[in-house]
Amino acid sequence: MSFNTLRWESISCDPRDTVFNEHLPQGGGVSHTIMDEHRFAVFGGLGSRRYNELFIFNTRENEWFKASMENAPSRRCKASLCCRKIETTTTTTTECSSSSSSSSSTASSSHSHSPSSTASSRNTSATCSEENHGHVVGKAWNYKLYVFGGWTSEGKTNDLYEYDVAKDEWKQLKPNNSFSPPARSAHYCCCVGKYMYLYGGIGNKKYGDMYRYHFDKNEWECVNAMQGDVPLPRSSYGGLLVLEGGGGGTKSNTQFFVTCGLGCGRYNDTYLYEVQSKRWTCVKCSGDIPSKRGRHSCVLHEETGNVILYGGFTGTECSGECFSFNLVTKEWKMLQQINPPPKRESACCVILNNKLYMFGGWGGDAKFFNDMYVASFE
Question: Residue 172: inside a domain, yes or no?
Fold first, then answer.
């Protein structure tokens, strides 16, 4: 599949979610992450105030779910948010008959505002036979979201929170080794296996360091990421994208993708980091290389092996430009846009089911967006 154009349209959410829409964050600095093939989550942000609400958007149902506020992180912007997908098994006792299959199908199609209802109904498989004597063994997925750091009204922070989607519960995680990365904001995190990786950001200074958090041990450790073509320290670099398989890496050689960002000025360079060798490589790019910028949005289009870059702050104004980067040819290409949204920086962008979704952002001149757009690739 190749594409040169994005065709945008505005999304109007389910009328039943009017109450939620009134409380959605307005502005930028909103953290976001993809959960599964139909859902993404947003947290925090800065507009007319700082926010600490967590919302999950279901693209299939076209509606928002608001998470519990009990034990939630304090209000903040420019934190990191990432999702860990955990495989679980369930065993229930039932009668092995066609009627049980029918009732299961009916339950799967029923409407629910539960944050985990979509996942449980579409990611569970079950078997029933004489051998298991009416025991239905199912495989399901549980999702946990992690918020680290950010910029609160009292300054930068380095606390870590976990949100259990199935339980709709928050809890603060205090590392067993009493060690955490320095407080920061405008950084990014990503989940790879049993670890969550953190790179860059701004605190007392611009950071170019890397850390990883071990989920099972509940411990942080510093990663020696100072080999190869080490990037200059930076923040607001659009995302720490994980490349595996079609994205340019393999399961045994996972890579991170970083482009542009803010440091001592603005950058428009591109880097790949190999997790196994702990080595950076500066990518020699060609084509329509984006101008220097930060607070842009980057997202991986896995089907085509391209990275999509949208918007950002170029130094004088917000940008509405959109680029694609081919991970094989290392070529940038500016995309044409039909019915484009207003220019903005710090928007939340995700690709689900071959569509690009965009939420919120700053528009300059105190414009705080909490609108939603979706684009088709043509």
Answer: yes
Sign of CA dihedral 262, 30, 58, 321: negative
Mean pLDDT taken over the chain: 87
Distance CA 40, CA 358 (A): 11
Handedness of CA 219, 224, 229, 235 (dihedral sign): positive
Q: How many helices (H) and strands (E) does the chain have?
A: 3, 27
Count the domains in the chain. Answer: 1
Question: Is 110 inside a domain boundary?
Answer: no
Tell me, yes or no, whether 91 lies in a domain.
no
pLDDT (tens digit, 9 = 90+) per residue, 77-93?
999 999 999 988 777 66
Q: What percent of the chain has pLDDT over 90?
A: 75
116 occurs within a structural domain:
no
**What confidence tens digit (pLDDT) does each residue in 263-303 have?**
989 999 999 999 999 999 999 999 999 999 999 999 999 99
DSSP code, position 130: T
In a 13 Å sphere around the CA of 29, the CA atoms on its Cβ side amount to 25
* pTM for this entry: 0.87
Q: Which domain holds residue 210?
A: 5-86+141-377
Q: How far apart are alpha carbons 28 and 44 in whole angstroms?
A: 9
Q: Quick one: pLDDT at residue 124?
A: 40
Where residue 371 sits, what CATH number does that domain have?
2.120.10.80
pLDDT tens-place string over residues 5-48: 999 999 986 555 555 556 789 999 999 999 999 999 999 999 99
Do 175 and 185 touch, CB atoms closer than 8 A? no
Question: What does the block give as tokens for 314?
Answer: 């170029």
Distance, in Å, from the CA atom of 91 to the CA atom of 85, rounded to the nearest integer, reads 20
* CB proximity list for 6: less than 8 A, separation 6 or greater: 322, 335, 336, 337, 338, 340, 356, 375, 376, 377, 378
Task: Compute φ and ψ for 230, nearest 5 degrees.
Answer: -70, 125
Tell me how long the chain is.
378
